[in-house]
Records
---
Amino acid sequence: MIASLTAVPAIILDLRTWFQPLSLRIGIGFGRISDRIQPPVNRLGGEAFRLARFAIDSVKRGRLFKFESRTAFASRNDHFNRTMNLIYGLHDTLVRQITAKQWETVATFIESPALGKTAKRLKLDISTVSRNLKRGYYWQLSETAKVAESLIDHSFL
């Protein structure tokens, strides 16, 4: 459960960054929660959990598209679902192409979003950091999160 729904896209980007090189499947359900959240979480009920399970099952079975997607959203709003799933399906296509070095640069830049600081921390030239961010699709990943936050805000808040 997340206190602010608009935080979901930033959390997805953080999870993808922190858990490299793992290829995470992420399912997000928007809806009500019927019980208090307590372990074991795999037994929790309510619309949000049911929809999240549906979303992750859609990713596992490759039901969303004819191309591989690692992220899925499910809610009662079909237009929202189609839009977010397409955005993240395309997003995931980019994510699969990012190298380990590019992920390292992205992760370091996210922690301290300044080219000079990132370059110094990674012991690279600023131009190399800039190139790694560009080739690692950082700017697209960042914009995806911003647009997705806005879509969530307009759809649910």
Note: The chain has a mean pLDDT of 92.
---
Amino acid sequence: MTDTTQHPDATVRNAPHRRYVLSLAGIFVLLALWSGFAPKHRQDWLLENLLVLLAAPILWAIYRRLPFSRLSWTFVFAFLCLHELGAHYTYSEVPYNEWWRALTGSSFNDLVGWDRNNFDRIIHVFYGLFLAYPIREIFLHLAKVRGFWSYFLPFDLTLSSSALYEMIEWGAACFFGGELGAAYLGTQGDPWDAQKDMALAAAGALAAMTLTACINRKCQRDFAREWADSLRVHPPDNAPPTPGRP
């Protein structure tokens, strides 16, 4: 992978994807406008989209500073679209079961053995599945990690950020309380909801990094050497030589 982080004009790094990224941004804005039109719970929609507003400057900084791939932009776009769908209906009330029944005449929940609305659980899987790869690209370019750490650290950050979100969600639910707190928390009576959400996000990230490692192992000639080298302890540059060795 070519290192372009020192390019004098940061915007050049994403110049090949400019039209593509702008197209995705335009589609997302339209979807966000639709999501904000008569949402099921207006205050919950505002809370959910506060996260999007916080993410916007981060994505802009990435566009300006990092050579993100088209695949990473696609993954981020897909996750944000799913998030807007959840924001419109609230995560625990997205009517996927009704949509499936309209298409097939049967219940999707009955088909897979679910007894609750699991859209929120699906989104946590996709959080790990879609965002671990872009996070890996950030580590590759900013921290210059390679080998094992380029797969473990995205998994680790996905899991830790999922745990942080669950704590924010809990704090917001306690602060607002009532119907808004319940809608935002969306536990549907499951006392282990937060733990299951974190586990599913971790499972999605693990699947993404495992698939990425398998593809790189097949396509990258020095994969094994880079992996082994990343796990080797390297002495600091100013360390004195080991006695008996040159």
Note: The radius of gyration is 21 Å.
